[in-house]
């Protein structure tokens, strides 16, 4: 079973945590990770770009000048794309950029991304730290003492809202509820800090990152 260090609020290693084998995958496929991350990023695109065609813009459809004798090129409607105020040829229209990713493929990508961080020795579990109320100063102190390299991904349990608010204002850090983290967040990070609640969530298989 892969082992990661358990640290206290002073950044000192106070033990180790054995991750469930099902959470990590030894063989990392860059192509599969790229596929999933690209799909996630595409899914965040708004897809609201829009422009009007010549049939949608306001204007006359009357012929602009007579066909012959003017020395100019023949033309019909004043709404053609090369006229000011005319429609756009092949305009962007509102659309969804979402790409379907197989559920098992996505779960596999989570395990690969986590395994890569574990292999690099940059994953820690924060033990015995409780946040009764948000405190960015306390969160910064923990990270400074732990000397975790940034960019850093901090994953907390769904009930640890005070801890989430404490970490999320710090530079170079993404603080997320563990069930909301995507593969791209794991790939983005150089280091990863779990709370005990977040690890328990993953090992319980309660989210995509812990699917078996």
Features:
30% helix, single chain, 6 helices, 212 residues
Can you walk through the features of this model?
The chain is an alpha/beta fold and 212 residues long. The protein has two domains: 3-45 and 100-210, Ribosomal protein L4/L1 (Ribosomal Protein L4, Chain: A, 3-Layer(aba) Sandwich); 51-91, no CATH class. It is built from six helices and six strands; from the N terminus they run E-E-H-H-E-H-E-H-E-H-E-H. It has helices spanning 30-43, 103-119, 136-146, 161-167, 183-188, 196-203; strands at 3-7, 13-18, 123-126, 152-156, 173-177, 191-195. A six-stranded mixed beta sheet has the order 2-1-3-6-4-5. Strand 4 (152-156), helix 4 and strand 5 form a beta-alpha-beta unit. The longest helix is centred in the middle third of the chain and has 17 residues, at 103-119. The mean pLDDT is 91.
Compact description:
The protein has helices at residues 30-43, 103-119, 136-146, 161-167, 183-188, 196-203, and strands at 3-7, 13-18, 123-126, 152-156, 173-177, 191-195. The protein is α/β, with parallel strands linked by helices.
Q: Which CATH architecture of the largest domain? A: 3-Layer(aba) Sandwich
Overall 3D geometry?
A: elongated
Low-confidence stretches: none
Task: Kindly report the spatial arrangement of strands forming the biggest sheet.
Answer: 2-1-3-6-4-5
User: What's the CATH H-level homologous superfamily of the largest domain?
Assistant: Ribosomal protein L4/L1
Return the CATH topology of the largest domain.
Ribosomal Protein L4, Chain: A
Please give the largest β-sheet. Answer: 6 strands, mixed
């Amino acid at each position: 079973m892969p082992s990661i260090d358990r640290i206290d609020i002073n950044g000192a290693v106070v033990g180790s945590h054995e991750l469930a084998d099902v959470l990590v995958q030894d063989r990392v496929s860059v192509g599969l990770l790229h596929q999933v991350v690209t799909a996630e990023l595409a899914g965040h695109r708004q897809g609201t770009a829009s422009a009007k065609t010549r049939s949608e813009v306001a204007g006359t459809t009357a012929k602009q000048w007579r066909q012959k004798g003017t020395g100019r090129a023949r033309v019909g409607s004043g709404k053609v794309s090369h006229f000011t105020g005319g429609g756009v040829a092949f305009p962007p229209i509102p659309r969804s950029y979402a790409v379907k990713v197989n559920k098992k493929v996505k779960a596999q990508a989570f395990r690969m991304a986590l395994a890569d961080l574990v292999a690099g020795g940059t994953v820690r579990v924060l033990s015995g730290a409780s946040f009764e109320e948000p405190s960015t100063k306390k969160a910064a102190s923990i990270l400074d003492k732990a000397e975790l390299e940034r960019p850093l991904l901090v994953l907390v349990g769904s009930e640890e809202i005070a801890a989430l608010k404490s970490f999320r204002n710090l530079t170079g850090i993404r603080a997320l509820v563990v069930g909301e983290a995507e593969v791209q967040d794991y790939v983005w990070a150089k280091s990863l800090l779990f709370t005990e609640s977040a690890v328990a969530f993953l090992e319980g298989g309660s989210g995509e990152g812990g699917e078996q």
